[in-house]
Amino acid sequence: MRHPVLLTLLLPPLLVAGCTSDPAGPAGAPSSPSASPSPTVPAVDYTAWRAGNSTPVADPLYPARGTAALDVLHYGLALEWAPPTKTLTGTATLRIRPTKDAPSLVLDFMPYQVDGVTLDGTSVTGTVAKEKLTVAAPVTADKPVTLVVKYHGSPKTTPMPSHRKDVEALGLTVTKEGGLWTMQEPFGAFTWYPANDMPSDEALYDIEVTVPPGWSAIASGTPAAQSGTTFTYRSTDPVASYLTTLAVGKYQKLTAKGPRGIPLTYWYRKGTDDKLLPYLKKSPQYIAWLEKRFGPYPFPTGGVVVVDSESGMETQQMITMGRKIENTKARRDRWGTDLLHEYAHQWFGDSVTPTTWTDLWLNEGFATYAQDLYTQDVLNLSEASLDRYVRQADAKLRAKLGPPGKPNPKNFAEGNVYLCPEAMLRELHNHLGDKKFFALATAWVQEQKNTQQDRASFIAFVNKQTGRDFTKLINTWLDSKTTPKSTAT
């Protein structure tokens, strides 16, 4: 997620220019059973979705969202959107590995009208209450099951637990013309499909969306074949639910190639978004700049969809950017540097994801530092000016919001989890120098692709990679109520 708006008030002059339905599994999946199936249900080999295997961890900041009792391996979503009635009709096929024996399955889900539920092909009762779908059927630990939920209704959003000035309701939003868009950090995927809506449970996805003629549907993942007005997307790298996206509208499509021939797709509204095209077309340049410092772009495709929002979101392989993010006199290139920030998240947050929301600083610290290093590079700013900037911003944000390692759940994604961990990374950079710091950052994302990490694993990695003990430095910067003194020369 891009810098919150309040940070523009802190920027000193030195940086003011600168967050398918798939009932049979993946194509070519084998059909031999891995568990004893019902006599009436064809055998399913769940190893076809082994890349979606996770170790779910209950989230301490938002314990009402998600559960560690199950691990979703794959979501197959077949959706249809009817603009005149603003009705979403869906069939969600979930391949689930229960992590413990339980009398029922429980997922996050907005109260749509449930039209039918089956578990391994047998009809079961599914009840939606208090944004939870409870499926009344027993499950056994490590014995995978297939859950199919059919539903329809009008999407509704859920409140955002933050005081940011650009705060908006989370989840699937209906536009005035009858389109759709969503941003859902730290949660909100459950507003359009049943989900285990927490960051530690990543899964594979197949999403197909049918829309009326003249409309386009955009989702996270790699674009697949379009059939008529049905748009299909597939994610073969695991995705956290907050990093999925869906947008429907009367879009124009523009394709390009990034470094090493990476296919890029930009979706925008002709006339409305024309002024943003220069930034979209700079995507190959942004990715090349990031690759030089952090290694190869981690996914097979990329792109951007522009929506009617005031914010930006690093949704995996298809960034969601708000057209209401405005360039200002103080920040002439704000839309562009915010887009680079979201591209940086494809490495930091998407490819390597925090285990829980306590460690949001792992995402935002790196992406914010990349954004400001880019601004420094473009404007040829001095090292001293960047040092001064991050320390001044750090001091103000710690005083207002507290340290980044202990975020308040009522203040999600506010400035302290952006600038304060950036200041910590700046301190590490000053200790290590360019060569060793960028080698560290590159190894962090390239060696741990498609994993979930936390503070302890980050500290252990830094110490092993550098051969030095930075435990005290990192913990101090994450937990101190005031800006720590610099110990770098």
From TrEMBL:
<dbReference type="InterPro" id="IPR045357">
    <property type="entry name" value="Aminopeptidase_N-like_N"/>
</dbReference>
<protein>
    <recommendedName>
        <fullName>Aminopeptidase N</fullName>
        <ecNumber>3.4.11.2</ecNumber>
    </recommendedName>
</protein>
<feature type="signal peptide">
    <location>
        <begin position="1"/>
        <end position="17"/>
    </location>
</feature>
<dbReference type="GO" id="GO:0008270">
    <property type="term" value="F:zinc ion binding"/>
</dbReference>
<keyword id="KW-0479">Metal-binding</keyword>
<dbReference type="InterPro" id="IPR014782">
    <property type="entry name" value="Peptidase_M1_dom"/>
</dbReference>
<dbReference type="InterPro" id="IPR042097">
    <property type="entry name" value="Aminopeptidase_N-like_N_sf"/>
</dbReference>
<dbReference type="GO" id="GO:0016285">
    <property type="term" value="F:alanyl aminopeptidase activity"/>
</dbReference>
<dbReference type="InterPro" id="IPR001930">
    <property type="entry name" value="Peptidase_M1"/>
</dbReference>
<dbReference type="Pfam" id="PF17900">
    <property type="entry name" value="Peptidase_M1_N"/>
</dbReference>
<dbReference type="InterPro" id="IPR050344">
    <property type="entry name" value="Peptidase_M1_aminopeptidases"/>
</dbReference>
<keyword id="KW-0862">Zinc</keyword>
<keyword id="KW-0482">Metalloprotease</keyword>
<dbReference type="GO" id="GO:0006508">
    <property type="term" value="P:proteolysis"/>
</dbReference>
<dbReference type="GO" id="GO:0042277">
    <property type="term" value="F:peptide binding"/>
</dbReference>
<dbReference type="GO" id="GO:0043171">
    <property type="term" value="P:peptide catabolic process"/>
</dbReference>
<feature type="domain" description="Peptidase M1 membrane alanine aminopeptidase">
    <location>
        <begin position="281"/>
        <end position="477"/>
    </location>
</feature>
<dbReference type="Pfam" id="PF01433">
    <property type="entry name" value="Peptidase_M1"/>
</dbReference>
<keyword id="KW-0378">Hydrolase</keyword>
<feature type="domain" description="Aminopeptidase N-like N-terminal">
    <location>
        <begin position="74"/>
        <end position="243"/>
    </location>
</feature>
<dbReference type="InterPro" id="IPR027268">
    <property type="entry name" value="Peptidase_M4/M1_CTD_sf"/>
</dbReference>
<comment type="similarity">
    <text>Belongs to the peptidase M1 family.</text>
</comment>
<dbReference type="GO" id="GO:0016020">
    <property type="term" value="C:membrane"/>
</dbReference>
<keyword id="KW-0031">Aminopeptidase</keyword>
<dbReference type="GO" id="GO:0070006">
    <property type="term" value="F:metalloaminopeptidase activity"/>
</dbReference>
<dbReference type="GO" id="GO:0005737">
    <property type="term" value="C:cytoplasm"/>
</dbReference>
<keyword id="KW-0732">Signal</keyword>
<dbReference type="GO" id="GO:0005615">
    <property type="term" value="C:extracellular space"/>
</dbReference>
<keyword id="KW-0645">Protease</keyword>
